[in-house]
Amino acid sequence: MDAAEEILSVERVSVRLSGREVLRDVSFAIRPGEFTGLIGSNGAGKTTLLRVILGLQPVNAGRVLIDGRPRSRRSALIGYVPQKFLLDPDMPLRARDLVGLGIDAQRFGIPLPSRARRSRIDEMLQAVDAERFADARVGQLSGGEQQRVLIAHALIARPQLLLLDEPLANLDLRAAQEVVRLLARIAAEQQIAILISAHEMNPLLPVMDRIVYLAGGRAASGTTKEVVRADVLSELYGSHVDVLNVHGRVLVVAGAGDESDLLGHEAALPGLEILS
Amino acid sequence: MSIAALGALLAPVVEPGFFSSEAVRVAIVVGALVAVTAGTVGVFTVMRGQSFAGEALGDIDTTGGSAAFLVGIGPLWGFLAVSVAAAAAMELIGIQRPRGRDLATGIVLGTALGLAALLLYLVTTLHNTTGAAQTILFGSVFTVPGSTIPLVALLSVVVLGSIATLYRPLLLSSLSAEMAAARGLHVRALGAAYLLALAVAIALAAITIGSILSTALLVGPAATALRLTRRPGTAIALAGGLGVTAMWLGILLAYDSFAWPPLGTGWPVSFFVVTLIFLGYLLSGVPELLRRRAGAA
To answer: What is the spatial distance between Cα B239 and Cα B228, in angstroms, rounded to a whole number?
Structure first.
């Protein structure tokens, strides 16, 4: 693989937070247009890894390259959709205002309304199927609608890499599927690399090109076929796990091995539905 | 149109002599400048959920107002010095962290109010008057000397200019510190700049309606504006407009109240201003209430 065509390259990154090793020797790379799932249970280090890529979290070892260069703080190449966006329902901010802030939030002065600006915002709202609620207050939108507006906010600056922190966490199944379909379409159409964190891999399985599986601060990456296997994940967890295919859904469960207790709650394993 | 001509036009509603009074003319100018500044900053205060910090700064300013009175300088200098110092202290203790914020505010507030108790006691006993304490705490825009106008105008322009300059970064960081940081904005510096603007706005409000009422002018019109519009820019314009309206109507009513019982004393202008702001807030809830009724029926 030619290193120059990688939009994101994470190389042997380790992060310690108050004495605890949150990320250990994490490496993976993403190319333009690739849809990558960052999968791991709560506390596996997903958010920390995203913060490292955004340049908000210093590393103890390793480095992050954006488009082949060490990342700078103001990298316009990265768009970001946060996990939590809590806005009171009565805040005076329409969906189109938030998308507009995506264009030039770093600029000084008051934005002057112009036809070009307006049509660019309209186009973006249309691209994420958000025209219907373009003029509604953001705080009054449903979780799925807010996600789409946040995605538009991140995309309108024309990034080459879009990071999303648990965008499906608070959505019902249908809304989650819609967001996933939308993201897959954007990745394919605009050749934007997408890195999306989730504790449940199943909604992403149909669209994921690659997976970065985090457990205990370590990562395994590759295609889902390469990574979501009993031997790879057992090695990652440091104890035996089974990967089951049930009606097209992948379940990762603590196996019957002696050390299965070390995994803690079975429910903490990504992909696990009901198995107990 | 000159103010005198406006006076002739309004003669039927306005008590005789309203516009020829120097105190009234100064009050109209100072009141408008302060209301616009406070309303503008107030929209961000409400968005950022920092109303408590604003209220605390106002209360703390009591110390500055009474100290200025004891030393014999204009109250605005006292309000300003203490407001900025308190804002800096809150910032240093950790106002930017959600949980550190209330704690830091509370600590600074408690200490300053203790000092205010001493200073107000000295003001009342040394000068043998309760009028000064009343003015510091609850204000009277009629007591603002005309010589203060240039300073008030300068401070207003600086605050409004700063908010206009930082409008977009400040708006995004007020909505989501995380998203602002991810875009490379300096969230901490923006927060500090905003807090400084808040401190100045509170000091300005304190000379018009008193230190402990000052947040009413900051948060009241802003909260009303938020109910009336969905656009952030319009909310700021509305908040300023509502503040000026309340201020001017309050000045008019206070002037007219000299003809009301008990005769010859007049009612405090701050009472009218704050009451009008509150009425505006109540009225702004009516459309939503009607919508809900209609929706339920």
So the answer is: 10
Q: What integer best gives the mean pLDDT of chain B?
A: 88
* C-alpha distances out from residue A197 to A38, A41, A81, A185, A230, Å: 4, 10, 11, 18, 21
* Cβ contact B168–A85 (<8 Å): no
Distance CA B148, CA A269 (A): 67
Residue B113 near chain A (CB below 8 Å)? no
A92/B179 touch (CB, cutoff 8 Å), yes or no: no
Number of domains in chain B: 1
Chain B within 8 Å of A103 (Cβ-Cβ)? no
What are B122-131's pLDDT values in tens digits?
988 887 777 8
d(CA B52, CA A128): 38
Domain count, chain A: 2
Note the pLDDT of residue B93. 75
| CATH code of the domain containing A103 | 3.40.50.300
pLDDT in tens, A60-91: 999 999 888 887 655 678 999 988 777 888 88
Specify whether A149 is located in the same domain as A266: no
Do A107 and A244 lie in one domain? The reply is no
- A212-235 pLDDT, tens digit each: 999 888 999 998 888 888 888 888
Residue A180 structure tokens:
């996933």
Show which of A225, A245, A263 is a domain's final residue.
Answer: A225
To the nearest 10°, report the CA torsion of B127, B130, B135, B137.
110
Query: Do residues A149 and A255 share a domain?
Result: no
Using a CB-CB distance cutoff of 8 angstroms, which residues of chain A are in contact with residue B178?
82, 84
Q: Are residues A11 and A87 in the same domain?
A: yes
Gap between the Cα atoms of A71 and A77, Å rounded: 10
CATH of the domain at B221: 1.10.3470.10
